[in-house]
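Design a sequence for this backbone.
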């Protein structure tokens, strides 16, 4: 752009000096000055456009940086919540494990052994509540005969579901 400007200034100087007198040369000089001016204008437009594009790119970059920051903050938040949840679950698991151990410790060894065996066979649940005449392990309702048998068993006897063989836990809501 400087070159174009310098050349135009040089041409203008020659024209102003009055040294060029030949009409053909004068015409050439004037036409070159005009075309240099147009070239100058075009270059200025290009510079302007580049500057505008640079500006909008900078704006976009700032916007993206802001979004990255927001996403990072959100992700940090989620990680903190997850860690907190994991801590709670671990604490609860430890509590339940302790409860289970202390409950297991108070049971007769042979009953515990039976429970463990059924639990293994029945997908992790070895005992079920008898609730409103229904075994909550397999969800089947006990028939009259079965209910009578349960009813007549001593309180400390181990009764089992005829269907799934799980140990039935009797409660006041058993429906006996
Ligand atoms: Zn059952």
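Sequence:
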């Amino acid at each position: 752009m400087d070159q174009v400007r310098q050349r135009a200034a040089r041409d203008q100087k020659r024209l102003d000096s009055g040294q060029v007198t030949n009409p053909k040369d004068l015409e050439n000089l004037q036409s070159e000055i005009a075309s240099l001016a147009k070239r100058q204008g075009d270059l200025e437009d290009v510079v302007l456009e580049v500057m505008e594009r640079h500006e909008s790119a900078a704006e976009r970059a700032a916007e993206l940086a802001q979004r990255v920051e927001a996403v990072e903050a959100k992700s940090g938040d989620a990680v903190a919540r997850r860690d907190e949840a994991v801590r709670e679950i671990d604490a609860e698991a430890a509590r339940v494990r302790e409860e289970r151990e202390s409950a297991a410790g108070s049971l007769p060894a042979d009953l515990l052994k039976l429970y463990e065996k059924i639990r293994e066979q029945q997908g992790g649940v070895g005992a079920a509540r008898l609730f409103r005449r229904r075994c909550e392990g397999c969800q089947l309702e006990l028939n009259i005969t079965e209910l009578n048998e349960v009813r007549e068993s001593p309180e400390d006897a181990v009764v089992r579901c005829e269907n799934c063989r799980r140990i039935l836990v009797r409660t006041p809501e058993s429906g006996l």
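The chain has four helices and four strands.
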